[in-house]
Specification:
8-stranded antiparallel β-sheet; mainly beta; Jelly Rolls; about 240 residues; single chain; elongated
C-alpha cells in the first residue's frame, strides 16, 4: 500500500516597495486570517463532498462555461455535461480540492477560476499555461493554470488555492512534467538500537524488509515548489 502526499512550499516576500500596477496580478493574494500551521488536520471522512456538473454553452454573448451542483441540479444538466465528485479540504490559508472525473459521466471538464496549482494524480488532459494549451499526463504539475481543464477519460486531479501570502513577484505560470521532476528515495531502520537513515542507492539496496521507505518527487518552478511523497505502508505520514 502507498500513500501520496502533496506539499506546496510558498515563498513569502514582504516589504517590497512596488506600486500596485508594477506587480503581476498573480503575485497579489488575500492574506489568510492565520499564520500557516501544521496543526490543521482534516481526515478524509471529514472533507466536504459535492456532486457537480460543468459544460460548455453558447449564447448571444459567446461560448462560456456553465456549472451546477447538488444532486437535483446535476440531474438536470445537459447529457454532454461533465459530472464529477469534488472533495474539499478548507484551511485558514487556502483550500485543496480533489476532483474525480469518469469517462462514463462526461469525462473531464472544469473551468479554472481561483486555483493556484494543479497536480494530475491520475489520467490525462489539457489546460492553458501562460497562454498556451499544454497536454498533461499523470504526475504533471501546473503553477497558475488557466482556461478549462479538459479530458475525455477517467481522471483524478488535485487543485489547490493558496491565499496565505501577500506578495510573490517571482511566481509565474509554469508546467513541470513528471519526467522532469527528480525523485529521491530514502529509508530508515534501527541498527543496534539506533535509527539509521539513508538515501544512498547502495545502502537502500541492503535495507531490511522492515525499513520505512519514502519516495519524494520535487517539482521546482519560479516562486514556488511542490513535493509529492509516496509513503509506503508502515512508513511516515
Amino acid at each position: 500500500m502507498r500513500h501520496i502526499g502533496i506539499i506546496c512550499g510558498i515563498s513569502l516576500i514582504a516589504g517590497l516597495a512596488y506600486a500596485a500596477d508594477e506587480i503581476p496580478a498573480h503575485a497579489i493574494r488575500v492574506a489568510g486570517p492565520y499564520e500557516p500551521s501544521m496543526e490543521f488536520h482534516i481526515p478524509a471522512d471529514k472533507a466536504e463532498t459535492l456532486l457537480l456538473a460543468e459544460w460548455e454553452a453558447t449564447n448571444a454573448r459567446g461560448t462560456m462555461s456553465q456549472i451546477s451542483w447538488g444532486e437535483e441540479s446535476v440531474a438536470k444538466a445537459p447529457a454532454s455535461a461533465s459530472k464529477y465528485v469534488q472533495k474539499s479540504y478548507s484551511f485558514p490559508t487556502g483550500m485543496i480540492r480533489v476532483l474525480d472525473f469518469k469517462q462514463a459521466s462526461g469525462g473531464m471538464y472544469h473551468a479554472i477560476s481561483s486555483e493556484t496549482g494543479l497536480y494530475m494524480l491520475k489520467g490525462t488532459g489539457s489546460v492553458e499555461v501562460a497562454g498556451k494549451t499544454v497536454v498533461l499526463n499523470e504526475g504533471d504539475v501546473v503553477s497558475y493554470p488557466r482556461g478549462v481543464l479538459r479530458g475525455s477519460g477517467d481522471a483524478t486531479v488535485v487543485l489547490w488555492t493558496v491565499r496565505g501570502t501577500l506578495i510573490n513577484e517571482a511566481a509565474a505560470a509554469t508546467v513541470v512534467h513528471a519526467a522532469d521532476a527528480p525523485t529521491t528515495s530514502s529509508a530508515e531502520w534501527d541498527v543496534d538500537g539506533k535509527r539509521f537513515r539513508t538515501s544512498k542507492p547502495e545502502e537502500l539496496a541492503k535495507a531490511p524488509e522492515s525499513a520505512i521507505r519514502l519516495d519524494l518527487k520535487r517539482y521546482e518552478f519560479p516562486g514556488n515548489s511542490v513535493r509529492v511523497t509516496r509513503n509506503y505502508k508502515g512508513g511516515p505520514t
